[in-house]
Design brief:
single chain, two-stranded antiparallel sheet, 14 helices, mainly alpha
């Protein structure tokens, strides 16, 4: 006989085999397979973009120390590496700002050299005070950046094409202004040569230019992380249309980024004068590619919206360590170029791989 409910008289529900208890929200699923090792690495690299370049820098230092011995980590050699990367590092800051907005600037080296010619000619030949010559050089860098920004924002020319064009324009202006002549150190004022002056740390010479670069990295990193302007740069690079719809004045942000990048390139030009001890219209060779390489190796995405200048600092140091270490090891310079190319390809590949986590 079927059992009957005491209150309703309805038949009691039949017993069913025990079913697994329903899991509560947030309860750990112990029966799920563990995340593979590569998956965990992928997630960590996406969450911590500086992890990859930091590991590469440490590993490179260990390898080259094992290859060439203690002289690689000698304070004098470390000082040399810092001097070698200060130009790439400063221009890399400018390039990072542009790439964060999903652009690229092929004219950074031309702007840098053009401003050195301007300051050198005004101070050494026109007789202007060095401070005024430097200020005019900074204004020239800002004007060059303004031109790039107008082409990108008002005329809608893709950054690659617009800066490729201004690269030729600024290079031609540089040669015309300089008459293709080098200005020697003996006619340049001390202020223009100041970034190349040194002081001693652990018995090794450290240039004031290196300190200026380090302070610039810290300042821009703070601005990008702690200011509305920095947040807007990331927003524009991640999704320009979405940023515009949210109320961000994307045109103004982009224009300001190109202007600031131009000023930073002018500062790099000042560092260049101190580094080489002269003003040459033919200096700065390879800085364009090196700056992009430092940015990419440092973990900044070429697609924009992701990365930071501290990664660019690590990228510049990686370039310097590889160049210096391979030279000390007696490796042909062509293999150094080959290694740089491999680093760029690997860095872009890792960026694509880690982006899949967000996708």
């Amino acid at each position: 006989m079927k059992s009957v409910s005491a209150t309703t008289g309805a038949p009691a529900p039949a017993k069913t085999p025990d079913a697994p208890a329903q899991r509560r929200v947030g309860e750990r699923l112990d029966d799920q397979p563990p995340v593979p090792f590569l998956g965990r690495v992928q997630r960590q690299m996406h969450a911590h973009p500086l992890l990859g370049p930091t590991a590469v820098l440490i590993l490179a230092c260990l390898v080259f120390t094992a290859m060439v011995g203690p002289r690689f980590i000698d304070p004098l050699n470390v000082s040399l590496i810092l001097q070698q990367v200060q130009i790439i590092g400063m221009v890399g800051i400018a390039q990072t700002l542009i790439i964060l907005t999903s652009g690229i600037d092929l004219s950074v080296a031309a702007v840098m050299v053009f401003t050195t010619v301007i300051s050198g000619k005004l101070a050494a030949e026109a007789g202007l005070p060095a401070v005024l010559a430097l200020l005019i050089a900074l204004a020239t860098g800002a004007a060059c950046g303004f031109l790039n920004g107008i082409l990108v924002t008002r005329f809608r020319v893709p950054p690659f094409i617009s800066t490729l064009g201004t690269l030729s324009i600024f290079t031609a202006l540089n040669l015309l202004a300089s008459g293709s002549q080098t200005i020697k150190a003996n006619v340049l004022p001390d202020l223009l040569l100041w970034p190349g002056e040194t002081f001693k740390v652990l018995g090794a010479p450290v240039t004031y230019g290196s300190i200026l670069v380090l302070l610039s990295f810290i300042a821009i990193a703070f601005i990008l992380k702690r200011t509305a302007w920095g947040e807007h740069i990331y927003a524009v690079g991640d999704n320009a249309e979405g940023a515009r719809l949210s109320g961000i004045r994307t045109t103004r942000v982009l224009l300001s980024v190109y202007i600031v990048a131009g000023v930073i390139c002018a500062i790099a030009g000042w560092l260049l004068i101190g580094r080489v001890g002269s003003v040459s219209p033919f200096s700065g060779e390879g800085v364009n590619l090196a700056s992009i390489t430092a940015v990419v190796i440092g973990g900044t995405s070429l697609f924009g919206g992701r990365g930071n200048v501290l990664g660019t600092l690590l990228g510049a140091l990686i370039i310097g360590v590889f160049s210096n270490g391979l030279t000390l090891a007696g490796v042909d310079v062509l293999w150094q170029v080959f290694t740089t190319g491999v680093l760029v390809i690997v860095a872009v590949g890792l960026d694509q791989w880690t982006r899949k986590v967000a996708g």
